[in-house]
Amino acid sequence: MRIIEEGKLVFSFSDDAIVSLYDNWSFYRNRFNNAFGGAKAVDIVLVEKQRTWLIEIKDYRTERRTKRIELAEEVALKVRDTLAGLAAAKCNADETAEKDHAQLALARNSIGVVLHLEQAKRPSKLFPRKFDRADVTAQLKQKIKAVDPHPKVVDSASLAMRKDMDWTVTGI
Questions:
Q1: What pTM does this model have?
Q2: Cα Rg for the chain, rounded, in angstroms?
Q3: Do 159 and 165 meet the contact criterion of CB atoms below 8 Å apart?
């Protein structure tokens, strides 16, 4: 299993998965992050046989959302900037692994966008359940339909029921 920890979540991918934390890439952090007045990044880039998945992770189980920008808008900007970053990394990354990952990601037949959104199971005044997954999905669909006309908004429980996403997520 390939394991990626992001905050208090553990993502488990198959051994043959081509997966990495894109926002930790040297190319992104040292060169692309400051391009164009500041670029954003999704958390994970996963390359499968036919599809590249861009996975953004939001965990609001123990922390409130403080950004003023709409969640779907934030994800859309990260998707746009990540695709531009992958195109630049394919040509200009210094690390071979990053360059190869970018090349493989851009060579796939389709791009899937996933917002992994964890929220408090039992809403409280401190951590109210704010986001309806269907509403966020609809908003995201409008914003990124040119990239992925069917973006997914999942949490750990709903991900386990999906056949098209071959990874699991557990809490630490």
A1: 0.94
A2: 16
A3: yes
